[in-house]
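Lab notebook: predicted structure, single chain.

Context: the supervisor wants predicted structures on file for every construct in the current expression panel, including those that have not yet been purified. This is the next one on the list. No modifications to the sequence; it matches the entry in the shared construct table.
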Amino acid sequence: MITISGWVNALRSNKFKQGVDNLNFSNTYCCLGVLCELNSNTLKLNKQKDGDFTSYDNHYRNLPSKVSSKYTFNDEIIHTLIKMNDGGYTFSQIADKIEEWHQQGKLLERK
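Prediction complete. Output recorded below exactly as produced.
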């Protein structure tokens, strides 16, 4: 499982092109899609291509439970991340917010 720091580093790495509305559409990712992609092998997510869409455990827009159960996400955090991503914030700005939550103990890895 990828750590919060690993996710933040990936968002800042420029390895992922940012997209909106879907986890992964035509190789553009929302911030949560990056987390799915990073965890796809270790969590054994069923990753499927359907045209331009890529799903993770049959999820195109929402976090699969295999991913969300590994972190201390709550609805407010998930909705804030979606709003930031789809509202024009850069991956770097989103990474800053994730780091802030992590430092505050609001977003952690589960054991």
